[in-house]
Amino acid sequence: xxxxxxxxxxxxxxxxxxxxxxxxxxxxxxxxxxxxxxxxxxxxxxxxxxxxxxxxxxxxxxxxxxxxxxxxxxxxxxxxxxxxxxxxxxxxxxxxxxxxxxxxxxxxxxxxxxxxxxxxxxxxxxxxxxxxxxxxxxxxxxxxxxxxxxxxxxxxxxxxxxxxxxxxxxxxxxxxxxxxxxxxxxxxxxxxxxxxxxxxxxxxxxxxxxxxxxxxxxxxxxxxxxxxxxxxxxxxxxxxxxxxxxxxxxxxxxxxxxxxxxxxxxxxxxxxxx
Length: 274
Fold this sequence. Notes:
Its EC number is 2.7.1.50. The chain is α/β, with parallel strands linked by helices. The protein is built from 11 helices and 11 strands. Strands 2-1-3-4-5-8-9-10-11 form a 9-stranded mixed beta sheet, with helices on both faces. It has a two-stranded antiparallel sheet with strand order 6-7.
């Protein structure tokens, strides 16, 4: 059950986000990495959103204008993608389009940080979603990473999230064994999930795409981000109960996102509000 002794309204709102999303069917523009682009598109469709993998430099400014939200994932950026990501973020700022930034491998590849800095300085970012290692790195704290993967235990993760959220005036989410989400004032810790999510490629990217989908339909980005991450974790738990091999798990994960209900979120979500 959702732990919400003093924050029942927050938890009730989390349960409502999914219904809002499926009614509104947000158009989610994705500039994401080539390894997981198909996974992101499929999980968005199953969740109830409309994905658009629009990344051409000559198209992104205008497309961002008509989108419900923009998801930027810096995992495998080419030079054109890099410039397109910055231009799309600028368009989002001009056109009031919510943006989710996924700083993939920022702790391992220095070039990523110059791109992230440009996006934050020139454009708009509503949510920064990364693994614990990436978020701690962006906050200037010590972290343990291996390439795109976090090896960090999670100690001090919430403090890093709060510092980063206050610095950029946005919501920050760090995913790991526990997931930490904050807007710098309010915070939530999600204790759902399964280790099997670490055995498939793209789980983090799919979560980022879902965060963009919910951001596109709900004004409170803390609540929308909590809903997206909790949705992924609950679908992962259910998929793992059905099959415990990674290939089959990936297929079932998409199925379970499709069948996810508000009732399941309310009944099985484990959230600590702070």
